[in-house]
Amino acid sequence: MASDPIAAPPFSTVPAPAPAPTPTPAPSPTEDEPPPEAGVRPSGNVAMRSAEDDAEYRENYLAAELINALYALDNGWDGSGVLVGVLDEGVEETFELEGQISNLSKDFGGIRDDGVLTPHESLGGDNSDHGTRVASIIAARNNGNGIQGIAPGASIVVLRSDVENIDTGTSTVGFNSHEALRYAGENGVLIVNRSIAKANPDISNRLMQDAVNAYRQVGGLVVNAAGNTGGANPNDAIDLTPENAEGWLFAVALDPNGAGYELASYSNRCGTAMDRCVAGVGTSATTDVSGNIVSFSGTSAAAPQVSGLAALILHKWPHLTGVDAGNVILATARDIGEAGVDPVFGHGLIDVEAALSPVNPTLSNGTTVSSLGSASLILPAAIGDGADGSLAAAISDVTLVDAFGRDYQADLSGFVRHAASGSAGVLGPRFDAMTQAGDAAFRLEGAGVQIGYLAGNRSDFSARIGSRITDGRIAVPLRSVGGTVTADYRNGRYIDATMFGRAASADALDAYMPGSGIGLAYHRPLGIFRVGASMRSYRTGEGEATALLASLGKDRTVFEVGMLTERGTLFGTPTGSGSLRFGDGARTIFAQLSSEISIGSWELAAHGSLGSTRLALGPETVVTDATAITTGRFGIDLSRDVLGGRMRIGLAQPLVALSGTGLVTVGSGFDRTSRSLRFSTREIDLSGEIAPRIMFGYERAGPRSSMRLGLESRPDGRDNTVLANWRLRFR
């Protein structure tokens, strides 16, 4: 093919390879060792980590390990179906590249004799050693023999651009690069590796600038070697413009033999192109034009590593473009120089695992998209382990989309946590209540005051530091209108010291909203009845709640109704964070009946409550709907004096969700043509587990000593707790 030499861009020359280091022998597997850091060669006893971690992989062990290349191979991403152009001096189809050369390959150079340019007779040959080495780093077959490329399933489109000038006795490469890029864009080749550099970095090339911009517009990416002259900038950086920037990616060379992450002495720096520049490993094992395994060094060796990674990205996500792949590579490169993008390494060393992993993934419920970020979902103990499993299953296979429009199948079940139930999480406070709890009562003019506290002598089981007030109460009789106004305070450390062996608190609010809070109540007699109304406010680090309660009592029997509004919690438990959180709060209405009677020498106390809870769901939460959650609890408590002390036997069912269902809406597929998610709605069971607890307690106090014993167990023998203490007083 004849070409007009005036219209052709200035010739470029192949960068002279830097001196090759001594090849590293493949290690023999006997024991595990971590991947090497820069400058660390594997010892001879590194164990095979997978089937892909074989002798062929280890032939190029150090260069592959530094960029985490094994990750792609282990997961089956090898560049299959992706075309990678190699704009170079031709490529010889050696045994490592057998079947890897695409029939789209084309010659843009030739032999110039007596002023006439004649096309080459083939796309390779003895003069194609440089291009063959480059192509092998990208796509040498993974066949168990010799070496393998970064993307061994990719197809190489040879864009031969070298010219042998018989008239002058010189050879150049890079001829008609602009035409080669146009051809690549027209034929769906979205990655072109250009391991050549401008001969004169001070002369711009408008044809090349426009060609890269046009190639960018069809989604193409040029991966260009920075050059081997030790310059401050890539040789071709002068042709980088704001318009074509996303079409370029420059590669500098990391010295694999350095003490740390060091630039190879011969490599140009990223310099003015640092925003579009990364580092690859400057030395790789590859094959020459004769098929021999050789060590190849230079930015020419670093660039095909970057091109191979781009091919892996397009294999995993064929709906992306080369421009997309370049932006992913920049965003996921390992920062190895000065913090952030720097003029030596640019964005840093390419990282295969990071580039194939999500970048700021988002979760969608079909209406709203939000960042997965630090999302979590917390279920209160009342909803139980069954719902835990139901929710975990519902989000165990979810389609996410990341910041680059890449879809991922993710198991988010590990984001579900369950609040502690039973005695878990309260052993310290209980032990404190047994051993360190005290109270003081006194009267002021017209008022009674009571204060509960924990002494500063804390136990090893406690997370508490120092003394603190646990609760306080002041009651003021209203003689003019009758009745009593009571104000009280409880913090999160409050536990009734007499509860050991007692069937849980009869106060329904303690079950629905445990924790710190202040309350205000009014009670008065009304004929044979007692009526009362109260309001309580709670505030925690995760949320807040307000409760209203009305009561009607006669003798030792009380009926109560209440409403609890929570913000940020459910039954006093934080709901989690982000789009996985279990709503934004809840509103609960409940009713409770409690009574105490004497049966001979025994005292019997019993209570039971029922409630209905409606979740407040956020617009972006994956829990998109839920029925009312029906809750219940009960307790029966028997006590009597025995052996000089007080014995209690109790049976209690803590607050439990009796019924309720919800809907989870998540991405369940991805249409890569429209780049849009498909969604499915999955039902979850919100009912908890009915598992009453059996309690036994004994307390005895004398002038010189006191003792307490508490036992708690579930009927199935799980979650057993025994707490005891004995105190002796010396005068």
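^ that was protein a. below is b, sequence first then the tokens
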Amino acid sequence: MSLSDSPEQGQAVLEWLQQTGGDIGSDDIVALAQPLLMQVVATHEQGKVAPLNGIDHLRVSLGHVWYANVHAQDPASNMAAVRKLARPVSGVQLDVTRRLRAGEDMQLQDSTTAERDEPARLAYYPDYIAWEQKLDHHDALTDTFVLGMLMGSLATGLDFSDPQQLQEFVLARHDLCALNSRLSPVIAMLIRRMTSLEREQRPQDLLSVATALAHYRFQEVEDSIAEMPAPDESNRRNMLLSRLQNRLYEISRRNRLLYYRETGSNANLTVGSVPHVINVQSIRLQQLLFTNEELCKSLGSGKPLALYRWLRFEDYPFLSTSLDRIRLQASRDVREFGFSQLRLVTAFLRWHNLKDAPDERINSPLILVPATLRKRKGVRDSFELDTDPAAAEINPVLRHLLLELYAIQLPETIDASSFTELEGLHQSLSEQLARSHKGVELELVKVPRVQLIKRKAMRRLDRYRRKLRKTGSGLKSYEGLSYSYGAQRHDPLGVQIFARDVRPANAPDRDLLEMDPHHRVIEQMVASADVADVEREFYAIDQGEEKGSTHWEIDLCAVSLANFSYRKMTLVRDYTELAANAESEQLNFERLFSEQTRARFDEPELAPLAERYNVLPIDPSQQAAVLRGRTGQSYVIQGPPGTGKSQTIANLIVDYVARGQSVLFVCEKRAALDVVFHRLKQVGLEDVCCLIHDTREDKKPFISALKARY
């Protein structure tokens, strides 16, 4: 066999990839790709690089791909050009996740796939080459990229010399298992990392890749399933308590603690801090509100967070309305339930339920910080946010579900003022995921992400001038908005007000042709022709692009403010304490959950008038309920509104106090507490009562009441 390379030899490799690749198992991929990887590793140890500038040097024999060692080359270096091309698009280091191009039909297409003869740029090129090879740069990381492309072609059966099939691979690169269901997630993850356009994200050691590929089956540690103990009397109480506790965790789609979605009742402060600018390079990182060391220090300083410093109210007119709605809802919760349910979400977990719905992306708040939002009146209203980072906790519903699904244990609380603790949480969760499920990659998103979109505008300048003037018959004006309800030009005022003041926009609605008509570019267009083609780049905030079920994220760049349904979560800790003391005798628990038939209550004996301490009107059934309280028996009083339950409770409290005992009266809603306290205050017994709604807010009034009493 001749060792000279030729296009015919490369064509033979392509035919072999198409015939062999596709719906093949992971073991076949390892057997076919491992010899080539080890040959490239040996070439690198000799200080050379493999002849992988395309596939013309490759040969196929005995079911393996290889190359003649005499074709190994010396590395070619052009790092200056590589660094210049790989430099981030913005001086603030914003992470550009996708580059899109709008076609003539305005459909967005991924622009990271380049044409075969296109000049060098950060993109995927046909014919199994790396973008840096277009710059005459070839080193070990270049070989890693080409090897990843060969493995990707083998795993999917796609021909990367065909631009359309290459585009299909690029779009599915983050979830290759969708193209080959027999592909191991570990191998899919290796291919994804090896084919990254960013050189620093590729594996730096090819030998470790070859080792991981050879032992991919050992990357998973199977969960040990403990045997369920028999439901005897010793653990019956624990089982009941656990079942009752689990009922508090509502895991339906209605629970925003698990399935979070952005609505008008919450506010994404990170998006609200991104200014509307023409060029994304004008955005400075210090302008944006996201979870970093600076924000953690601000939360821990004890000073209110001045939102006017971060948020762009002039660019997002709806933001002030959303914050007002959030503030009023928090105030209603305080009045009704006695505590605020407002939380500042400093981190989100974007994950998948791989057992029940692997294709569905779930956005769940991860770190919840208690917060109080205040509004200060002025020429321009401003908002301040008080937080308690020491009381921050991991989302209890998410913590429960991850424990049930993957045996992942997360801490209950976290210090939100420590960025180091947050990084430690990411490390701990990554390690537990690696033990629980192979191939799942957890990324910590530290930098706000944007998508760049190129659009081509083709407009006639006379139509452009008419749009600027907005004049004509039947056209009216309101606060700078021109509107009309005519048949020829139907521009309703309400639609325009909604578009200007209400509808949120991810990217500024300013293209080059809608700028000031006196702009020099427009002047040049006016002088040159009646038709102008202008292509410019826009940006849109990326809030978590779908990258496959095995790619999870802890997103620090979506700081949000929202009211959650948090009332039931306060009972979770109580059940945990009860379960910890399950061995001790709990009389009330046994009475409630006893399997024996409950005994019928005997009517209590009627006490003499001198021993009845009723302070409010009472009927015989209410009197019987008060007297039954003296027997020490547990019972339930129920009835519709207006039947005297609060009146009975007030008399019951007075009966205990008059006999030298104390009473703890608790209720889910604050209004019920206020009603009973008001009834006791009306009869002059407020001095023997202490009303506490919030342990922090009511501390000073409680101490003042004690001082006045003593």
